[in-house]
Amino acid sequence: MTTLRSTPLAAVHESLGASFTDFAGWNMPVRYSSDLAEHHAVRKNAGIFDLSHMGEIRISGPDAGAALDYALAGKLSAVAEGRAKYSLLLTDDGGVVDDLVTYHLPDGDYLVVANAANAETDLAEFTKRCAQFDVTVTDESAQTALVAVQGPKAVEIVLAALQKADTTLNPDEVRDVRYYRCLTGELDGFPVLVARTGYTREDGYELYVPAEAAEHLWQLLLDAGGGDLIPCGLACRDTLRLEAGMPLYGHELGTNIYPSQAGLGRVINFKKEGDFVGRSALENRDATADRVLVGLAGEGRRAGRAGYAVVNEGKAVGAITSGILSPTLGHPIAMAFVDPDVAEVGTSLNVDVRGKAFTVTVVELPFYKRS
Fold it and tell me: Which residues form the GCVT N-terminal domain (predicted)?
């Protein structure tokens, strides 16, 4: 029997009465109270998430930018210090190994954040792809904790936490740091990276600290948030990201899925100099017949789930990758790969839910945008 890995906050989650699930070999809190309560808290006030199961890989050295340009589909060498970029790690054939956020840190190093399910694979790929460059690849996953605060009140909560701490961070800079940018400093004697990033389409921050500082940071934020901040598990993180139209590896992304199919063709930078893994395969393939990712919206309360068939005039034309009854919108939503000739917004289709056909309409992604 495989022993599940635990984050530095495992004891905290147990004390809060969390229910746990196996996620990519990690024993992770799936919920604390109810999925709906936690989802609505993030949309209305704020939620705090333990994301310490994610992988952190540091790329340092004089060739770090060039190495990442080769390893990833984007041009990371053009990212200014203090900024972040979303990119893709591709196979030689152009499929998606992982989708990643990379921070160009103020000290010049790059920090690549990998999905938990792919962290070991990503580390091996970066080690191999960077071998020809003058760089050092360091796995910092085990010694790093990641805590996210997401929601309309996230900014005031994080600022209130800073007021209670001994920190080198400038509160005005933390308040004003823009989306996909980051700051570094010290917080009560520990190094901290504060990033304006997230996976919910709400405002908020992701904070990286050494593993030994995780409980201190968590409690500092909870105390600052009071009744406006509640712990949130992976269940509501999934419903939040689906409303936000954000892909999840293993559902909307995979080695058998091309970026253009998932609506991520814009992430591929064919204008950058030199080669990158997957470039020639993507440049030379005909994608016109590929199924493409769309949003689907239905009526009533029955939601299609991953794997359910999408049907048009009795013929299967696709399959759902993720689907829920949207807590925010109050109706079923789903993402699905469908044939290109039925992918236009406004197209009426059916979803086969246990043998019964339910009508859905192709809609633009994301399903939810904050006002």
Answer: 11-272
CA distance 117 to 250: 9
Cis check for the bond before 8: say yes or no (omega within 30 of 0).
no
Yes or no: say if 45 and 153 are a contact pair by the CB < 8 Å rule: yes
- d(C-alpha 184, C-alpha 165), whole Å: 15
**pTM summary value:** 0.96
Q: Please enumerate in sequence order all residues whose Cβ is within 8 A of that of 370, keeping only pairs 6 or more positions apart, or say none.
A: 152, 201, 202, 203
Six-digit token string for 159: 């600022």
The amino acid sitting at 69 is D
Query: For residue range 250-300, what is the model confidence (pLDDT) as tens digits?
Result: 999 999 999 999 999 999 999 999 999 999 999 989 999 999 999 999 999
Query: How many whole angstroms separate alpha carbon 104 and alpha carbon 98?
Result: 19
Task: Note whether 364 and 297 are within 8 A (CB).
Answer: no
Backbone phi, then psi, for 93, in 5-degree steps? -85, 0
- d(CA 80, CA 229) in angstroms, rounded, equals 33
Could you tell me which of 133, 154, 139, 132 has the C-alpha nearest to residue 198?
154
Residue with tokens 């269940």, as numbered in its chain = 235
Of 309, 223, 268, 353, nearest to 86 by C-alpha is 268
Residue in 202, 208, 174, 168 with CA at minimum distance from that of residue 187: 168
